[in-house]
Queue: 2 jobs
Job 1
Amino acid sequence: MAEHIARHSPLGGFAARFAAATRGSGGAVRLAELPYPAQINVRLDPKGPAADAVRLALGIALPVEPNTAVRGGGLAALWLGPDEWLVVGPAGTAGDLESRLRGAVGAYHAAVTDVSAQRSTLLVSGPRSRDLLSHGIALDLHPRSFGAGRCAQTMLARAQVILTARDERGPGFWVLVRSSFAGYLAQWLLDASSEYTAPGYAAQGCSASQ
């Protein structure tokens, strides 16, 4: 008899605490997990035929400008290096997305690898999201420097992450972190957000804009 294996997120136990922090800040910061997104690592020559084949298969082109991201059709392609990208899709689509990419590159010189289990994904959003992340990151997160369409591999609170700015419904970021560091980073974010959840903060400061 086959044994059913349940899938558990490293961040599964943080949902209630994230929700409480979000409520406590009056919406100044929002913390949430984006569970189980598809994550496919792609390596190829950006000037070769494989890149064109991937563009046709996904409906979006792999970005060639360093530290940029392209979105479309429910997918995001994040630049990780001159010949490396991370393609992110909705939960439950990893198998299909990997198959599409493998079919597209065919016999071309390229590598397509499902790395969905490698990282957990956090959403950090709200008017104070940049302030919150700036407590533990060396990047300039001002919209002029790191606005929509930007991404970076960097360190956040001494944890290696992929950070990308999202552009829907106001300021916000995806934080992709190694699953083994997910609990640590979640706790750090909760601790760092405490100044926005202090009594009276929601009434006094949550309307501030950046």
Note: The helical segments are 15-24, 49-58, 94-105, 129-134, 179-192, 201-205.
Job 2
Amino acid sequence: MRLRQCAREINPLLRGTAVREIAPDQRLKWRADSGLSDGAGYHVDLVGGYYDAGDNVKFGLPMAFTTTLLAWSVIEFGSSMRNQLENAKDAVRWGTDYLLKAATATPGTLYIQVGDPNNDHHCWERPEDMDTARSVYKVSSQNPGSDVAAETAAALAAGSIVFKDSDPSYSQKLLKTAIEVFDFADRYRGAYSDSLVQLCVHFTAPTLDTIASGDNSYMAYIQSNGQTLGADEDDYSFSWDDKRAGTKVLLSQGFLENNIQEFQLYKAHSDNYICSLIPGSPSFQAQYTPGGLFYKGSESNLQYVTTSSFLLLAYAKYLRSHEGGVASCGTSTVTSDKLVALAKKQVDYILGDNPAKMSYMVGFGQKYPQRIHHRGSSLPSVRAHPARISCGDGFQYLYSASPNPNVLVGAVVGGPDNRDGFADDRNNYQQSEPATYINAPFVGALAFFSDE
């Protein structure tokens, strides 16, 4: 029952962090329009999209990842979403609408960010009151960004699959743009930042382009570039800035469901990733808290929990489609049921089955975080306090010990530390800040369990 109820509450976060209300039935009534002139100073329309966390900046890479994972959730588990399917598709469309603008506003250019994070982080103000610089950042052939461009292509391609039957013309537009953006990413190679992300982590784009278009040239691309781009390297996390594990699980589907023998390699790599998470496996190397939570890092750890849970469930589904499908862990094997059980333990922990009896989804359960690191939630809403609250005046709310006046229903926060400890403290952003890229994979996991 917990999971079924939760599935009904998950999407308001994603809709509520949008920079404009998606529809008149917006469920977070304390939010209002914001960012309505984004891009205007650069003569482009960049209105829309998501603020990815508790600030007021639109970052293209995590936004594209969020959209990809939302779409992947619908593709894999949409049949389990029942009356929430349209809400999930609305959330995907809100992301793809913005990414279409970012990719097509200026030929040969992809807009990848709106807002200056340094200026933004010197303010604590509602998005409706923003007066910080809405600087626009872009990549081009002269200043390439293969990482963000390829993830954008993946999001658009995944979205095209979501809308293939319900809105064919929109689906085709998404696919056409995805192909163009991937070609841009591949032709002009280079990372857009000083991060370690490289093009090799974005096989998601050609894989999804293949699925969406049926064009086998992308399969050939994967086969010919796999080793060169690091496909033979194993990594043991999956996040918005490192896609390798997720990409290999997705590629393994080609072998498990479609018997593409060339992709059996990716099944082996996926097994390595999965086995690293399984306690007792010969290749086990994950860390868990005393209460049983997967623990990867001190900052926003639940992003790794929700992504790994989603991959466990997606891989379990793929294994079940293959006769005798199991994950090989050295001399032992792991069944799909064991993957599902591990994912369920993580999902239940997030929803309150943990030593603190704390639900880390805001608004769900009897006990949940009250002081989340989120500007709009922590400040009086424009409906309760119509007068503007300036950049500096908002800090009194950041430092207040009072609970947030606006409940960001559905938001999953960064989560507890490696000893299951959680500081319900607005200033502890590592634990108390929600993010769309934490929530997006959780949508698919909750949909899966709502049918169990």
Note: Strands lie at 58-59, 109-114, 136-140, 287-288, 294-295, 327-329, 332-334.
